[in-house]
Structure formats: structure tokens, C-alpha cells
Amino acid sequence: MSVIYVLLTISIIVAVGFFIAFIVAIRSGQFDDSYTPSVRMLFEDELIKEKSKKSILTKKD
Amino acid sequence: MDKHACFHCGLDASTANIVYDEKSFCCQGCKTVYQIFSENDLTCYYDLQNAPGATPKDIEGKYNFLENTKIIEQLLEFNDGATQIVSLYIPHIHCSSCIWILENLNKLNPSISASVVNFGKKTVRITFNAETLSLKNLVTLLSSIGYEPFISLDDYSVGKKHIDRSLIYKLGVAGFAFGNVMFLSFPEYFEVGEFWLEQFKPFFRWLMFAFSLPVVFYSSQDYFISAYKGLRSKILNIDVPIALGVSVLFIRSTVEIMFDIGSGFFDSLTGLIFFLLLGKFFQQKTYAFLSFERDYKSYFPIGITKITTEGKEESVQVYDIEKGDRLLIRNEELIPVDCILIKGQARIDYSFVTGESKTVSKQSGDKLFAGGKQLNGTIEVDVLKSVEQSYLTQLWSNDVFKKDKSLAFTNITNQISKRFTISILIIAVFATTFWLIVDSSKAINVFTSVLIIACPCALALAAPFTFGNVLRILGKKKFYLKNASVIEQLAKIDTIIFDKTGTITANKETSIAYEGISLSKDEEVLLKSTLRGSNHPLSRSLYHLLNEHNILTLDRYEEYLGKGIEAQYKQDSIKIGSAPFVGYTSETATLNTAVHISSNNTYKGKFTFYNAYRKGLSQLFNKLKQDYDLVILSGDNEGEKDNLTKLLPTKTKLLFNQKPEDKLEYIKYHQSEGAHVLMIGDGLNDAGALAQSHVGIAISENVNVFSPACDAILDASKFNELYHYIKASKSAINIIKWSFLLSFLYNCIGLYFAVTGQLEPVVAAILMPLSSISIVAFTTVATNNIPHLTSPKGRKRMPEDE
Questions:
Q1: Do the chains contact at B119 and A39, CB–CB below 8 Å?
Q2: Where are the domains of chain B?
Q3: Mutate to test the interface with B, among A20, A22, A56, A59 (most CBs of B within 10 A)
Q4: B299-397, CATH topology level
Q5: pLDDT of residue B356
Q6: Beta-bridge partners for B715
Q7: Were B370 and a residue from B172, B205, B272, B390 both cysteine, which residue would form a disulfide, CB within 3.0 to 4.6 Å?
Q8: Do the interacting molecules here have an ipTM over 0.90?
Q9: CA angle B640, B644, B648 (to 5 degrees)
Q10: Which UniProt keywords apply (chain B) (predicted)?
């Protein structure tokens, strides 16, 4: 019988954990700007490409 | 990529002939930026987007005020001496390349440790080391790569901005509790008589109670506050029945689980609040890159150069300017106060103030008004009035700017809710009395059930979702509304007042007519070649009008500021400019701007500049005249009167020479006679009228740059669609009325269960989300199909208009 108490406690702890994560995310301003990060995440690839092809890049037009 | 487009900014580079690194550029400025980027390994900038840049402007001395520590202190977000953080608004931010370059600023200058772009707001937040890089140098660096920040007086007074995130917290709490309560009430729904579940019933119920506590006392507090405020001012707003429903739900559920009568309605309670907050959240569409609250402060500079009595230059804060001070106004700087021109040639652009794009030339001793922008080198002026007392800024001391328009009227939901609340209370009382007689044990049950089921969830959701969606659709069509109540106000409009210059006329386009002796081919070639060298706006317009000719290299070229241009090629000389300059004396005073031409000292004729009206103007007016009273209030002279009477429907009223205060008073007068006024304007001089009217729409050629305080901003390219937008607002009101009907239907079904005393928690738990979701679905589908915004007929009609 007590297993239900254990399970419930775990489930609530998990739920509250996510809830706290949500609050923290809001506080850090994650929801203030929903557009820029979507662009920013694409830059990493471009940087690597630029380094390897730098010499070619200046030649093409 | 086009060979002749500038590699940096995309402008035409064929005439400039600047080639560097096998790429063509339109000017040295663009080339320099490219050089900076290529030296610092930042050419990736050009991979992300073709020609993303802007030509850097000459800013010599413009940011001297950033040496003033008092001003710096106000601008910084964080400052501990060494590390400083500043957020700068950069209007040029427009593509992914911009984000990339601005977030890689540290490659250009190692003193910058971090920079984060907010694309929506067009801001960049820069952390830098103040010991090695001053704020002024940082701004200079940004300007040198074409990202000049816009620093205005507004930044000075606000200090640290506070972001209100309470709604999203409340929504999060409600959603969290709703999910968990649903999960815990599942066993109850199926009523399985299973032994273990029976054992845990009280525990589950108390857990649900615990989850609902933050929802009732935190998430829904706005409804209680609003209901209390409404009752105190004797208004039965929609929040009254909501607050009533929520409290009855909570109290009855608590009592039920306390005495083990039933499971309570915690699922419906949390769900209700979650849906309501979701509606609120949806309606709260904001345009981060637009501001509807701008006044003169958003355009005025923070600091200005003062010349002290010893003749030294010194940066002062504009609020510190006193009468009698001597100021130095540089090229492209805004004049912050009324003053008298002392030294230099002034050519003032008053487009911020009047919407009029033509510049005005002033001579020493002339009075200059605050809000004008100097376009022609450096001038010195003597201050006549301080900032707040200047002609333009005085307008803001009018009471109109202190009123909050949205508080002044009852919205459609609240109009319904009054009758709704009263009828619900009557039904509850009747049902309770009936049951008191028949079966008194059920009376209290029925009474609470009625209040619970009648809780106007669907009713309260109809308006937010309809308006929220219409707001979004209009936003996509470049009509940006401040908030949802503007749609309701727009639907009630019966009088439309237009400003003239910049509103019904296009700023950039003018139509030009030539009168006089026709020019020979040689003269035309000479004229065009001469105009090519001048940067005066009139010369530019005229230059683009003339046919293509071979460009001659002139033997002599001289520009006389404020007068005209003189040029010579071989034997031929030409004079272009004002009537006295070209030696034409019999000029009668005309009201329109004109450029006179003389060739070899004989007068030829003049080019007269007329306002070019926006496309589809007369069609728009003809459509509008059927339903609305139309008025044109212009600050200009009557020069265009004949033109306008020809163009517009005859019953349109035309009023000229209207000062900003006159416009405001005119609207006030009509409102006192019961008219619902829509004002459409563009300049700061319309700000009073825009604030006074029921709905003030600002027309803007570039929505990012300029618009006075208003209720809505309309992109100038969509001006001729105005009729459809107003009609769409009416359709939105009709959709809301239909969804009210739908939600009453649900209420009737619910009330049947309630008055007969059969309301089970399951019924409530099904009925409430079902009604809410179907209302949301109905309003979304209906608004997406508003004929004036979507129908192919409406779309197709537009090309014919032109």
C-alpha cells in the first residue's frame, strides 16, 4: 500500500522539478525573445565552413 | 549576384566604380566596412545574406555627448567601473547576418566580452571593459560598420526597464496544477469500486486541494481584483461572474472533500483558470519592434554641444539647456529647442514635425523650431526657450496625453456580462427557492451548481481569441494595432479625419510639372549633369525625373547654399534654383515649391513640385464616403486645394492652415457632438489629434523608424486597404456576437443539469473544456475567413483600384 505514496511522491517531485525549471527559464529571460535564438543556433556550422573555405570564398563572387 | 550591386549594401554600384577584392562597392564607406570585416575574418557576414550592410554615416562629433559621465550613467544597464553593460537600439538590424556580426563584435575589439542581439526589439546588449573601451568609442565602432545605434532622450528618462512576466508565471502555475489535478481525478471519473482506490480517495482529494490553492490565490487574483474594482464603481464586468464562479467552485469543493460528500470540482476549477489565462495570453499580442507610446522624447537627442562663453565646446544634457545658451548643431542633428539662427546656412527638415519632407532654408536671424533636423553643415544658434517650453513640445502638456483611452469605454464583453450576471443570479434564486419547497436537502447543491456551470468561461474567451487572431492577421497585413480594444473602437467609427502631408500624400514621391520655354536637348543634358552633383532633395527628385542622357564632365560647378546651382560646360552656362537666383523677377507668389531654370542668362521656366497622392486614394475615398464622414485637416497652405477637390468626393471637407492645437480642438468638438472619430496622421504635429480621437492611426513609410503616439500603425504601402481593415473590425464584432450565442447554448445545457440537481463533477469537467475549446475553434476559423481580409474577390479588386 505504501508503494502508492512512494510513487505519488516521486511523480510530484518530478512534476515540481519541471515546474521549477520552467520558473527558472522565465526568470532568465528565455521567453522574452523567441526569435533570435532560432537564428543563432544555425551560426555554428557557418563558422566552420568559413574557416575551411576561406581562400575560395574571397575568390568567388 | 548582380555585378553592379554593391557587395556590402546592395545599392547600385555601377557609377561609383570602386572595386576591391574583385567586388564592386557603391561608395568608400561600404568598401571600408568590407575591409574591416575581411581583415578580422568576418566575411562570413556576406555568406548568410546577400548585401546585408548599410553605408556607414559620417558621425564626426555626433556622439560627443557620450563623454559626459552623467549621460553615460543613465544609459548603462550595469556599471562597476571596469565592466559595463549597455543595451543599444539599432534600427538597421534586419537579417541573420546582422545578428551574426553583432554577436561577433569581440573579434573586432577584444574589450567587448559579450554581445547578445534581441532581433524582435532590434537591440543589442553589449558587455564591455570600460577601462579599455569607452562607450563613445563603442558607439563609434558600431557606426563605422554601418550599425549606428539610435540613442534618444527616451533612453535617458526610463532608466532600467522592468519586464512584466507575471502573466506567464500565472499561466504556468495554472497549467501545472490543471495537469496534475486532472491526473489525480482520473480514478474518480471511472468510479471503479476498486478497494485500493477507495482507500486513497481522501489522500488524492487533499492533494488536488493543495494543487488548486496556488491557482485560486495566485493565478486568478487578477479576476478578483478586477471584479472588486468593477463592483466598487458599480459596473458588472465579466470578471464578476468569473470571480463568483471561481469562489463558489473552490468553497463547494473544499466543503465536499471535508465532509467526504464528493470529489469536488478541482479539475474544472483549475481548467477554467488555465483556459481563461490562455485567452488573456493569446490576446496580449505585442509588437516588440513597435512603440505606440512615443512622444517627442523618442526622437530628441540626449546631449547637444554647447559653446561656452569662453568659446569652448562642451556636451550638455538637453534638459540643462537654458535660454540664452549658444548651441552648435552639426549636420544631421536634431534641433531640440526653439532658437534663433546665428551663424551658418540652415536647411531644416521638419519631417518629424509636419510629415513634410521638403527642406526649408533659413538665414541668419531666422527663428528655428524644435524638432527640425539640420541637413547642411554646422550651424550655431541662440536658445529662445527650454526644451519643455518649445512650440512643439508644449503640445504634450495637453491633458489628452494623460488619459488612458481604453478605460473610457465599456467593451462588448462587459456590456453582455451585465445582463448575463443578473439573469444567472435570478435563475439561481428561483431554482433554489423551488428546491427549498420540493427537497430542501438539494437546495444548496443546486444554488452552487448554477453558479458553477454559469461561470462564463466560453463567454470570456470569445473576445480575447477573436481579437487576438484578428490582431495577428492584421499584423501580417502590416496594420499593427496597439491592443484588442482598438478593434472594437474601429468598428464604431463614423467620421474619418485625414492629415494631408505624409498621410494622403507619399513622402518620397512628388510629381513635377514643367512650365515655360521647352528646353533643347543640349540644355537638358547640361541640366541633368548639373543636378547630378547636387545633394539637395529637390535636385535629387528632379534628377530622377529627367530622361537618361550622357553625363557631361562640367567645366565649372558651383552650389550656392539656399539659393541654387550654377554650372558651365564649354559655351553654355546654366543656373538652377530660386527665382531671384536665376534672375527671374516677375515671379508671383505661388504656394507650391518650384525650381527655376535659366540658361545662358535667359529665363527658361520652372519645375513645380506637386504632392503626389498615394495610389488608390480617390477609390479609397469613394468607398469610404458611403459609410463615413470624411475630413481633411492640413497644416499646409491651400496650394493643393484645387487638386484635392478634383480628386476626392465632393462631400469631403477640406480645412487648411490647421495648427496642432486646432486639429485637436476640431476633433474634440466633433466628439462632443457624438461622432466617433478616426484620425489618420503621421507627424508629431498630429500627436494631439491622434491622442484625442477614438482611434488614432499613424501612417508610416518605415514602421521601424518613426511614428507618433497612436493606437495603430499602418504601413504606408497598405494605405488603400484601409477600407477593408475597418470592415474587418466590424466582422470581428459580429463573430464575437455569434460566439456569445454559442456559449449561451452551452450554458443552457449546463443549467439544465444544474437546476435539476444532477450536476456531477464529470459533467462539469466535460462541459467546461468542451465549450471553451469549441468557442476557440469557432472564433479561429471564423476570423481566418473574414471576407475583407481573405476572400479572393477582395484581393482581386485591389489591382483595378490603381
A1: yes
A2: 64-153, 166-284+411-465+731-786, 299-397, 477-499+616-724, 507-613
A3: A22
A4: 2.70.150
A5: 62
A6: B700
A7: B390
A8: no
A9: 170
A10: Cell membrane, Ion transport, Magnesium, Membrane, Metal-binding, Phosphoprotein, Translocase, Transmembrane, Transmembrane helix, Transport
Contact A19 B41 (CB under 8 A): no
For residue B567, which of B606, B580, B575 has the smallest C-alpha distance?
B575
Instruction: Identify the domain containing residue A11 by its residue range.
Output: 2-59
Task: Classify each residue of B563-576 as buried b or exposed e, where b means 16 or more C-beta atoms within 10 Å of its C-beta.
Answer: bbbbbbbeebbbbb
Of B8, B161, B27, the closest CA to residue B87 belongs to B161
Residue B615: count of CB within 10 angstroms of its CB: 15
Minimal C-alpha gap between A9 and chain B (Å): 11
- Are the Cβ atoms of B99 and A50 closer than 8 angstroms? no
**Which chain A residue shows the shortest CA-CA distance from B287?**
A33
Does residue A50 register a pLDDT over 70?
Answer: no
| B527 closest CA partner among B488, B569, B563, B494 | B569
- Structural domain tally of chain A? 1
Residues shown for chain A: 61
Domain covering B64-153 assigned CATH 3.30.70.100 in the classification = yes
The confidence score (pLDDT) of residue A44 equals 63
**Domain B507-613: CATH architecture, name and number where available:** 3-Layer(aba) Sandwich (3.40)
Q: Give the whole-angstrom CA distance, residue B79 versus residue B67.
A: 15
Would you place residue B404 in the very low, low, confident or very high pLDDT band (cuts 50, 70, 90)?
low
Predicted pLDDT at A59: 38
Cα separation, B588 vs B505, in Å, equals 26
Taking the CA of residue B2 and the nearest CA in chain A, the distance in Å comes to: 9
Query: Is residue A61 less than 8 Å (CB to CB) from chain B?
Result: yes
Dig out the grid coordinates for B101 from the structure. Answer: 556580426
Length of chain B counted residue by residue: 802
* pLDDT beyond 70 at B128: yes
Q: How confident is the model at residue A42 (pLDDT cuts 50, 70, 90)?
A: confident
Q: Which residues, including other chains, have CB under 8 Å from residue B351's CB and lie 6 or more apart?
A: B357, B373, B502, B507, B683
If DSSP codes are grouped into helix, strand and coil, which group holds residue B260? coil
> Which H or E run contains B116?
strand B112-118
Please state which of the four CATH numbers 3.65.10.20, 3.40.50.300, 3.30.559.10, 3.40.50.1000 is assigned to the domain occupying B477-499+616-724.
Answer: 3.40.50.1000
Answer yes or no: pTM beyond 0.80.
no
